[in-house]
Amino acid sequence: MLELRNLSFSVTEENRDKEILRGISLTIPDDKLVVLTGPNGGGKSTLAKLIAGIEQPISGQIFFNGQDITGLSITERARLGISYAFQQPVRFKGIQVLDLIRFATGKNTLSVADACDYLAAVGLCAKDYINREVNNSLSGGELKRIEIATVLARGAALSIFDEPEAGIDLWSFQNLIQTFDSMRRSIPNSSFLIISHQERILNIADEIMVLADGRLEQSGDKEQIMSELIGTTSAVPGCRKVEGGDSSVC
Amino acid sequence: MLTMDEIKKRLLLEVAGLHDIPEGAYNIRADGKSAGRQSSAHITITPKENGSGLDIDIQPGTKNESVHIPVVMTQSGLKEVVYNDFHIGDDCDILIVAGCGIDNCGNQDSQHDGIHRFYVGKNSRVKYVEKHYGSGTGSGKRILNPVTEVYQQENSFVEMEMVQIKGVDDTNRTTNAELAAGAKLIVRERLMTHGVQNAYSKYVVNLNGAGSSADVVSRSVARDKSYQTFDAKVVGNAPCSGHTECDSIIMDSGRILAIPSLEANDLDAALVHEAAIGKIAGEQIIKLLTLGMTEAEAEEKIINGFLK
After folding, report:
1. B82 and B47 Cβ atoms separated by less than 8 Å
2. Which one of A114, B29, B120, B160 has the fewest CB atoms closer than 10 angstroms to its CB?
């Protein structure tokens, strides 16, 4: 279980403090899928980075399974079971997809067949990708799916995804949603925090939280929040072009 | 079985991947003397009359064969210059593995300057692998100054993999190539320097024949207080295509000078150069930290991947 207590964050711009998050308190229980939505610039990605340890709050506390992790490093949090999928995945010259999946599992000896299973789960033809370098030769969509595969491979107790649907080009939303479903089933008691505006992702949430202007404006069951969000920028229908794409590039 | 001590065997493994005597033709030079030599049916290795090196003759049409000529040195203060000439006939397809490992535990400098000349016949394909490695705790320097000259006849193909990852204190590498029509040269250099090491790597590739091409790419890492210079020049003297690239990572107080250059002496010479130097991107480190690595582990994985 993840608990945030009165979490605040600000940056300095042109010698002035700008508040990004203002006293956020929330709880993500075990075995729950929470979707965090809200307008752009509302602080969603910053909140995800604070949980992963990439940014440090100016005040407030973060508890994970009862332990205060506010002062812990990214590495320590990762080892406790927090996983984070970047909104814009990182490219590496020379590091192959197989390497990255092995890093994610922490097993240098992970077999190629087992690594391929993670790629297949995100709709990539494993044999075409397993030896590819994670560099500029990959499209944004391919990179995004490999990023999701690394989080899948970690099998963490809490997985955070920052706009996982962005740029998934040929892959359908339905497959992405199935991936989340199978992750939930394969990792007992796992919880998920997914940042998204997409209605179809909001639809798979157990709970929805709305962050706007650095404040948690709404929080509750999917049914309760969805009815209020439909038609706003916090819940946009999936792009038709994306929905009509092939279900797989295999 | 070769009679070599454990240090020499370890060096041999590092530079040539050899646990024991290789298959095919080979010459293993240890502390200035031949520790083993064998010719094969199609490849003849002959010591030069003045003792300054070897002539390696590869018969036309020799395919899927290899030549290993590694050098290992463990004697502090030994300095040598060795000339090895490869005469490769037409229509060959061969692998040549060279490389030098120096273990210097003494206080005198050890130095090996290998001058390799390749005369590559028409339509032949050559893969050349050269690894350099240094070890030892002595204050004497480990110095390697290789000179590589490549003369490629029509439609030949040469791929060179030059690797120097660890332990060489001072290196001055020179590679010159002359390509006839339709010939192609690919160079992949990987270099890592640390401590107060100094590395200078210079290439001059002359594309003399129509349809010739070259792709010279260096990936390097300069750590600690080391310094590197990459100076690669591609000259287009005919309708040809050439590309040179230097991609480098600097760490600690490492410094790099990259000088990729081009000279077009023909209107239809298409030449491109690229150079990039920078530290490891912070987001790359962060990504690996989120996978549970420490910062030191993340750096190591990124560097190993970059130089793979």
Report:
1. no
2. A114
